[in-house]
Amino acid sequence: MDVEGADTGNGGDIALAGHRAALLSRRSFLVGSAVGLGAFGLAGCATPDGMSLAEAEKVYGPVPSEKFPIPAVDVSKVDRKYYRRTVRYETKEEPGTIIVDPSKYYVYRIEGDGMATRYGANVGRDGFRWSGDAYVGRKGEWAVWTPPKEMIQRQPEAAKYARGMPGGLDNPLGARTLYLYQNGAYTLYTIYATSAPETIGSGITSGCVGLLSQDMIDLYDRTPVKTKVVVLPA
Hints:
Keywords: Cell shape, Cell wall biogenesis/degradation, Glycosyltransferase, Hydrolase, Peptidoglycan synthesis, Transferase. The protein is an alpha/beta fold. The chain contains four helices and 13 strands.
Protein backbone atom coordinates (compact mmCIF):
# COMPACT_ATOMS: atom_id res chain seq x y z
CA MET A 1 0.00 0.00 0.00
CA ASP A 2 1.24 3.45 -0.83
CA VAL A 3 1.96 5.53 2.26
CA GLU A 4 1.88 9.30 2.20
CA GLY A 5 5.45 10.55 2.14
CA ALA A 6 6.81 7.14 1.15
CA ASP A 7 8.00 5.93 -2.23
CA THR A 8 6.70 2.58 -3.31
CA GLY A 9 8.17 3.20 -6.74
CA ASN A 10 11.16 1.60 -8.35
CA GLY A 11 13.57 4.51 -8.25
CA GLY A 12 15.56 2.78 -5.53
CA ASP A 13 16.98 0.26 -8.00
CA ILE A 14 19.68 2.77 -8.82
CA ALA A 15 20.83 2.69 -5.22
CA LEU A 16 21.23 -1.06 -5.12
CA ALA A 17 22.30 -2.09 -8.61
CA GLY A 18 26.04 -2.64 -8.75
CA HIS A 19 26.62 -1.84 -5.08
CA ARG A 20 25.53 -5.00 -3.26
CA ALA A 21 28.84 -5.35 -1.45
CA ALA A 22 28.33 -2.01 0.26
CA LEU A 23 24.58 -1.89 0.69
CA LEU A 24 24.64 0.38 3.73
CA SER A 25 27.26 2.81 2.48
CA ARG A 26 26.37 6.24 1.19
CA ARG A 27 27.62 5.36 -2.26
CA SER A 28 25.37 2.32 -2.45
CA PHE A 29 22.27 4.38 -1.74
CA LEU A 30 23.31 7.49 -3.67
CA VAL A 31 23.69 9.93 -0.88
CA GLY A 32 21.25 12.14 -1.54
CA SER A 33 18.15 26.63 0.68
CA ALA A 34 20.11 26.69 -1.70
CA VAL A 35 22.94 28.29 0.31
CA GLY A 36 24.73 30.85 -1.77
CA LEU A 37 22.08 30.86 -4.48
CA GLY A 38 21.05 34.46 -3.94
CA ALA A 39 23.72 35.64 -6.32
CA PHE A 40 22.83 33.00 -8.86
CA GLY A 41 19.13 33.52 -9.49
CA LEU A 42 17.28 32.94 -12.72
CA ALA A 43 18.69 36.01 -14.42
CA GLY A 44 22.28 35.52 -13.34
CA CYS A 45 22.95 31.88 -12.50
CA ALA A 46 25.15 31.35 -15.55
CA THR A 47 27.22 33.16 -18.10
CA PRO A 48 26.44 32.64 -21.80
CA ASP A 49 29.05 29.88 -21.76
CA GLY A 50 27.61 28.29 -18.62
CA MET A 51 28.48 28.34 -14.95
CA SER A 52 32.15 28.57 -14.06
CA LEU A 53 33.76 26.08 -11.71
CA ALA A 54 34.01 28.74 -9.00
CA GLU A 55 30.31 29.53 -9.35
CA ALA A 56 29.44 25.84 -9.32
CA GLU A 57 31.35 25.33 -6.08
CA LYS A 58 29.15 27.99 -4.48
CA VAL A 59 25.84 26.84 -5.96
CA TYR A 60 26.59 23.21 -5.17
CA GLY A 61 28.18 23.91 -1.81
CA PRO A 62 27.08 22.37 1.51
CA VAL A 63 23.58 22.97 2.86
CA PRO A 64 24.05 22.80 6.66
CA SER A 65 20.57 24.14 7.43
CA GLU A 66 18.85 20.93 6.31
CA LYS A 67 17.41 18.35 8.74
CA PHE A 68 20.24 16.14 7.54
CA PRO A 69 23.03 18.53 6.51
CA ILE A 70 23.86 18.06 2.85
CA PRO A 71 27.55 17.93 1.90
CA ALA A 72 29.05 19.86 -0.98
CA VAL A 73 28.97 18.27 -4.40
CA ASP A 74 32.30 17.28 -5.89
CA VAL A 75 31.62 19.33 -9.01
CA SER A 76 34.70 17.93 -10.72
CA LYS A 77 32.67 14.73 -11.19
CA VAL A 78 29.96 16.55 -13.16
CA ASP A 79 30.38 17.60 -16.77
CA ARG A 80 30.01 21.39 -16.85
CA LYS A 81 27.22 21.13 -19.41
CA TYR A 82 25.06 19.64 -16.65
CA TYR A 83 25.49 22.55 -14.23
CA ARG A 84 22.30 24.49 -13.66
CA ARG A 85 21.80 27.35 -16.06
CA THR A 86 19.19 29.52 -17.75
CA VAL A 87 18.73 28.69 -21.44
CA ARG A 88 16.54 29.49 -24.42
CA TYR A 89 13.82 26.87 -24.71
CA GLU A 90 10.90 27.32 -27.05
CA THR A 91 7.76 25.46 -26.05
CA LYS A 92 4.01 25.88 -25.95
CA GLU A 93 3.91 24.60 -22.37
CA GLU A 94 2.92 27.01 -19.61
CA PRO A 95 5.49 28.57 -17.26
CA GLY A 96 6.18 26.26 -14.35
CA THR A 97 5.85 23.09 -16.45
CA ILE A 98 8.62 20.55 -15.99
CA ILE A 99 9.98 18.88 -19.14
CA VAL A 100 12.28 15.86 -18.89
CA ASP A 101 14.51 15.14 -21.90
CA PRO A 102 16.04 11.72 -21.12
CA SER A 103 17.95 11.54 -24.40
CA LYS A 104 20.01 14.56 -23.35
CA TYR A 105 19.88 14.02 -19.56
CA TYR A 106 18.23 17.36 -18.86
CA VAL A 107 15.25 18.55 -16.85
CA TYR A 108 13.76 21.93 -17.74
CA ARG A 109 11.54 24.22 -15.69
CA ILE A 110 9.74 26.53 -18.09
CA GLU A 111 10.09 30.17 -17.04
CA GLY A 112 8.23 31.87 -19.89
CA ASP A 113 9.35 34.27 -22.60
CA GLY A 114 11.22 31.46 -24.31
CA MET A 115 13.44 30.75 -21.32
CA ALA A 116 13.89 27.80 -18.98
CA THR A 117 16.00 26.74 -16.04
CA ARG A 118 17.92 23.63 -17.07
CA TYR A 119 19.26 20.98 -14.71
CA GLY A 120 21.48 17.97 -15.44
CA ALA A 121 19.91 14.63 -14.52
CA ASN A 122 20.23 10.89 -14.40
CA VAL A 123 17.41 8.96 -16.05
CA GLY A 124 16.05 5.47 -16.69
CA ARG A 125 18.36 2.77 -17.99
CA ASP A 126 17.59 0.55 -20.96
CA GLY A 127 14.35 -1.32 -20.44
CA PHE A 128 13.04 1.13 -17.84
CA ARG A 129 12.51 4.26 -19.91
CA TRP A 130 9.07 5.76 -20.38
CA SER A 131 7.51 8.89 -21.82
CA GLY A 132 4.26 10.80 -21.60
CA ASP A 133 2.46 13.42 -19.57
CA ALA A 134 2.10 13.30 -15.80
CA TYR A 135 1.73 15.75 -12.94
CA VAL A 136 3.13 16.23 -9.46
CA GLY A 137 0.62 14.43 -7.24
CA ARG A 138 2.45 15.06 -3.99
CA LYS A 139 5.79 16.21 -2.62
CA GLY A 140 8.08 14.91 0.09
CA GLU A 141 10.99 16.22 2.15
CA TRP A 142 13.39 13.53 3.39
CA ALA A 143 10.73 10.99 2.47
CA VAL A 144 10.54 7.35 3.52
CA TRP A 145 11.60 4.97 0.75
CA THR A 146 9.80 1.65 0.34
CA PRO A 147 11.11 -0.72 -2.35
CA PRO A 148 8.33 -2.24 -4.45
CA LYS A 149 7.89 -5.99 -4.49
CA GLU A 150 9.19 -6.15 -8.06
CA MET A 151 12.47 -4.64 -6.94
CA ILE A 152 12.72 -7.01 -3.97
CA GLN A 153 12.30 -9.90 -6.38
CA ARG A 154 15.15 -8.59 -8.52
CA GLN A 155 17.33 -7.58 -5.60
CA PRO A 156 16.48 -9.60 -2.46
CA GLU A 157 18.82 -7.54 -0.28
CA ALA A 158 16.25 -4.74 -0.46
CA ALA A 159 13.75 -6.86 1.48
CA LYS A 160 15.07 -5.49 4.78
CA TYR A 161 13.43 -2.18 3.84
CA ALA A 162 10.07 -3.66 2.85
CA ARG A 163 8.46 -1.67 5.66
CA GLY A 164 10.23 1.52 4.67
CA MET A 165 13.62 3.15 5.02
CA PRO A 166 13.53 6.39 7.04
CA GLY A 167 14.59 9.63 5.41
CA GLY A 168 18.23 10.59 5.60
CA LEU A 169 21.44 10.86 3.64
CA ASP A 170 21.51 7.12 2.96
CA ASN A 171 17.94 7.09 1.65
CA PRO A 172 17.72 6.74 -2.16
CA LEU A 173 15.15 9.56 -2.43
CA GLY A 174 17.42 12.08 -0.76
CA ALA A 175 16.32 15.49 0.45
CA ARG A 176 13.34 16.12 -1.82
CA THR A 177 10.95 14.07 -3.95
CA LEU A 178 8.29 14.93 -6.51
CA TYR A 179 5.86 12.02 -7.00
CA LEU A 180 4.47 11.69 -10.52
CA TYR A 181 0.81 10.82 -11.05
CA GLN A 182 -1.45 10.09 -14.00
CA ASN A 183 -5.26 10.12 -13.80
CA GLY A 184 -5.20 10.22 -10.02
CA ALA A 185 -2.86 7.24 -9.62
CA TYR A 186 0.78 7.19 -8.56
CA THR A 187 2.93 6.05 -11.49
CA LEU A 188 5.74 4.68 -9.23
CA TYR A 189 8.04 7.26 -10.85
CA THR A 190 9.62 10.23 -9.11
CA ILE A 191 11.96 13.15 -9.58
CA TYR A 192 14.29 12.84 -6.62
CA ALA A 193 17.54 14.18 -5.11
CA THR A 194 20.87 12.44 -5.52
CA SER A 195 24.28 13.33 -4.13
CA ALA A 196 26.09 10.95 -6.48
CA PRO A 197 27.46 13.47 -9.00
CA GLU A 198 29.02 10.77 -11.16
CA THR A 199 25.52 9.56 -12.11
CA ILE A 200 24.45 12.84 -13.71
CA GLY A 201 24.34 12.41 -17.47
CA SER A 202 23.71 8.66 -17.40
CA GLY A 203 20.85 6.19 -17.61
CA ILE A 204 20.93 4.07 -14.45
CA THR A 205 17.54 4.23 -12.72
CA SER A 206 14.32 2.25 -13.00
CA GLY A 207 12.62 5.16 -14.74
CA CYS A 208 12.93 7.80 -12.04
CA VAL A 209 14.81 11.05 -12.65
CA GLY A 210 17.53 12.27 -10.30
CA LEU A 211 18.92 15.77 -9.85
CA LEU A 212 21.78 16.88 -7.65
CA SER A 213 20.42 17.66 -4.18
CA GLN A 214 20.98 21.40 -4.52
CA ASP A 215 19.24 21.45 -7.89
CA MET A 216 16.38 19.34 -6.58
CA ILE A 217 15.81 21.71 -3.67
CA ASP A 218 15.69 24.61 -6.13
CA LEU A 219 13.18 22.82 -8.37
CA TYR A 220 11.12 21.51 -5.45
CA ASP A 221 10.72 24.93 -3.88
CA ARG A 222 9.31 26.33 -7.12
CA THR A 223 7.05 23.41 -8.00
CA PRO A 224 3.55 23.19 -6.50
CA VAL A 225 1.41 20.09 -6.45
CA LYS A 226 -0.50 19.64 -9.74
CA THR A 227 2.40 20.96 -11.81
CA LYS A 228 2.44 19.36 -15.26
CA VAL A 229 5.39 17.11 -16.10
CA VAL A 230 6.22 16.10 -19.67
CA VAL A 231 8.64 13.23 -20.22
CA LEU A 232 9.91 13.23 -23.80
CA PRO A 233 10.77 10.03 -25.69
CA ALA A 234 14.36 8.93 -25.15
